[in-house]
Amino acid sequence: MATCKSTSADTVFEIWLASRANPNSTGQRLPPGSHRPLCSRKLRLALRILKSCSAEIFGMLWSLHPWRIGLTLALEIIRGLSPAFKGYSQALLINEVQRLIISRQFTCGDLLHLVGAETTRIGFEGLLDYLASSSEDVIHSSTQFLLEYKQMQQRVRLDVPTLNDPVIRDLLHESELFVRSFNGMSSFGLFSTFDLTHILSLISELVSHLLILASVTSGDFHLHALLLSLILSVLPLMLGSRHAQADLEGCDDSVEIRALVTQEKMHFLAYSNSHRPELALFGLGPWILQSWAQARKTMLKSGRQESILKEAERIPSYLISNINISGLLFVMQNIPLLLATHSPSASLGNFLLYRNSIESLLFTIRRLLHAISMAYQNIFLMAAFCAASSIKPRLHPDDDNVVQYKNNPGGMSITARNLTYTYPGSTDPAVKDVNITINAGESIAIVGFNGSGKSTLAKILLRILDHDSGELLVNDIDIRRYWPEEFHAHVSAAFQDFSKYDASVRENIAVGFVEELQNNDAVESAVHLAGAAGLVRSLAQGLETELDFISTSSRSDATPWASPHGTKSELSRHGLSGGEWQRIALSRAFMRANRPEVDLILFDEPTSSLDAHAQKRVFDSLQTISRPASGAKKTVIYITHRLSTARHADKIVMMDKGTIVEFGTHEELLTRNGQYASLYKASV
Ligand SMILES: Nc1ncnc2c1ncn2[C@@H]1O[C@H](COP(=O)(O)OP(=O)(O)OP(=O)(O)O)[C@@H](O)[C@H]1O
After folding, report:
1. Rounded average pLDDT over 86-94
2. Domains along the sequence of the chain with CATH
3. What is the 3-state secondary structure (H, E, C) of 338-365?
4. Which of 432, 446, 449, 456, when mutated, tests ligand 1's pocket best, judged by the most ligand atoms within 8 Å of its CB?
């Protein structure tokens, strides 16, 4: 056993982190998913994890099917006794044959009787196996669902800054391995409730072999055999067959395909980093989770029904296949040997039983050690799963510091003081010492050279990123005191790197305010504001047209949401040009921007791919909804390289190298004759 350095660790997260210390290299971490060496330090950590998390995990799983899990545990323990009982029963059979032969009263009828008794035992064994595996299937699919659900929940609640942390990414990776191990897909092998029962079963097998060995050597043979026989005979009668309870509704293939597609789409959304800003901004987490859960349940249900149907067809063959004819033949093969020896005192059965028990004992010990070493590795994955569930998203305020966002009738006011932000892994700040005051209801254009920090500043203002230092006040309250979800309900945005969803036009737009997904008026109004009505009309299936974003996307993580079996929708997907996609993204932003509770609209390069008419249309719409003839104003911020557009804003922010170099009205900045003035003159 190796020795590892000791570190102090209190929470499950810290224990998990300590378990990743590389024993061969101080200060280095083991890569995520790698095996933990067996050493006294890691063993102690494993025990602490078991103490802290196992009750939570097994309590969670136990609550799913208490009686079934209890039953499965009992069955596994009894199944563990089977090999020993089998050896014992066969030894009895041999002894009986030997006795009959020696007493010269052997008849074929006696032989058939003995063979019948042995066959009955084997039949019971097969039935026991069938009942145990049926019950396991039910527990397995519920467990799988619950853990996958929890994992999706972990993903969608985490914000961009949290996910940017490489340690958190490693934690989520190991948490995922833990969940995958319930599908048998983990590199560590399977460690699930059934591995635990497997360990119990192996322990009971070990004990039974020891018991048999003790019996053979002490001669106290029949009592134990009787007990084992009784247990094996009575237990199956107590068990209800899952087969009888199965709900064998017919399966609808199209429902399954739809469910599978939805499940994959939602999974992709939850895991995609490129969609993360919109996911946070539009508060899509609960909707993704709910849609995924519904689809996943349908898939698991249909999978279970399929296996029930298959099993129902398979019961006779299952039982027959479990009758180990070779074992019986092995016993029979000893009869000639008995006939030859004719010894009145020899007991070949006892001799074989002893020999088999010794062999089985060693084999069982090997399997048990293997199972325990698998479990040891998976304990650390379990810690990752537990710790991941309790990560506090970076943008969440402390409970005692929370302030409720109050709707500002005149739009959102923003004050930034010495705002600085550096991307993880970078040395130079992308935003540096930004100071600005934006009054409620103002329209602000942010302009500047490429890479000057405009989009980064926008993401900080939108509470997608968290500034490293400085202060950001929204309606005179520190933005860090608002719940991000609550704050996001009062803003709408179109990002420069907006998302293209592998979905219909309607879905692509309505994710801006997903509660109105089926509200045609709301969707059509958003389409109208973005000047996309003509585009939608030109599509054969209008809002229901499925969009093909692959052909127009060049992003590296543009993973296709695989449609199984090459479905019809895949064939009829519609590609869009860059400008058309931009109109769809703007419609999405207008879906929310038009709502009364929204105080801030932020568009990052909203019209970069639009023609002059479309561009005018978008700015007219912005004007209409942010400065309505009656009703509340909204603050509008837009980032643009088109200075002919910027000049219409109330004030202009000129950025360079992460900082604001000029701020004022168009006229003021021209008079100043600085960077803005030279850029403006160059553009006209
Ligand atoms: N995810 C990131 N990780 C590290 N650095 C980044 C990241 N995103 C942007 N940057 C860097 O931050 C700086 C500011 O980028 P930002 O996108 O805010 O500029 P911008 O003014 O919006 O540029 P553009 O006009 O080209 O859109 C750039 O130097 C950029 O390389």
Report:
1. 77
2. 56-250+326-389 (1.20.1560), 410-490+634-684 (3.40.50.300), 498-596+611-631 (3.40.50.300)
3. HHHHCCCCCCHHHHHHHHHHHHHHHHHH
4. 456
